[in-house]
Amino acid sequence: MKRKIFTLLFAAVLAVFAAIPVLAFEDYGHIYDGTGRFDRASLSSLSGDKLTALSDRYAIEARVDIVTDLEGRSISEYARLFYDQYGYGYGDTDDGILLMVQLRPDDDGFAFGDYEVCYGGEAETIFNGDFRDTLETALDIHFSPESWTGDFASDNEACVAGLTAYADVLDNILGTVLEPAAPTAAESFFGDDTGRLSEEELASLNEKALEISNLYQCGVYGLIVEDYREYDQESVYDAAKALYKEKEFGLGGDRDGVFLLLSMADRDYALIAHGEKGNGAFTDYGKDELSGEFLSDFGKDDWYGGFSSYLSGADRFLALYDEGEPYDVGSSAGSKAASFLLKLFLIAVVPAAAALVICLFLRRSMKTAVKAVSARDYLADSGIRFTCREDNFSHITEVITKLPEASSSSGGTTVDSGGFSGKSGKF
Hints:
Blueprint (H helix, E strand, L loop, with lengths): L1 H18 L6 E2 L3 E3 L6 H19 L2 E7 L7 H11 L10 E10 L4 E11 L1 H5 L3 H13 L9 H26 L12 E3 L6 H18 L2 E7 L10 H11 L10 E7 L4 E7 H7 L2 H16 L3 H20 L11 H33 L53 E7 L1
Parallel strand pairs: 2-3, 3-4, 6-7, 7-8
Antiparallel strand pairs: 1-2, 4-5, 8-9, 9-10
């Protein structure tokens, strides 16, 4: 027993240490820290309170990537690669701005390598003269070899100060030339006519929905009503379509969007999509999968959890659509899902497998007894003799296998004459 416990503990320790190099990065949304060492609270606050806020305010995505290896490229090439490969920027013209900072580990902390500012879409037009000079002058103060000569604590302060200056200058410049982007009202995306969601929960859902909607230019909406029949509709599905039109949901000329309606009287729901992007991203098969993600929460009366799952799924499906492979029958679930599985494989499976092989080898070396090759080797020299032989009927085992339900879709999206697609049911 002690040997088994030791083996398991040793495997766990080996797995943790083997996984540490893979975990050396942090993603805070609008800030990616490839070192994984800078102050989490500061970078998380900068990402949410400053960069995400001004990105949503002006519909120009502001991001920061801190890297340590350019993989043989120049920093300008690497920044452009990141911008294009990871789909930075809002809208069809990828409006955005990326600050890439290259650092090199040294004895005390990090040595500054270089920085690059990469522009996309409307941002490239705005930052094409004095404004570009203003931004780069501010960055030169904080991102230079002279500013990164202390220990790690000093490097951390230099990093936070530089990124704060970056966000502040962007905010000032964009506020000079642009009007705040609409919509920004707290009621724009999620509502609750029944009081089941708190004000804090509604605010959180609306903030996330606003971010997703602006990022993909496709509105993501949710609403709880007491009874869909109050809207003079024969079904919850028809009520969802009527509300979509009445509330003027959807973004862009095609009014792209997805809408989840809950009706509490008989626990009905409808999930509908509209527009080229809405119907393209949320296929019939995709709606089935998305429903499965939130129905379990709603079945337990977890309204905030269900809508949070809905938002996460919508974010994933829209990302796959923008990558050119909508979530549908036969799809590979896109590069983001594959990337997640690869990270999970590298972080958990590979170290654990290596640790298990080592521990099994050590455990085997502790054993002095070995299994015999055949059953004959276990017989005594005098053989074996049966004194009684009989067969007794015991019971019959009947196995019933439930056949899987057929998918509601063989691929693609079924769109009605009003430009809507969707499904409905109970929760």
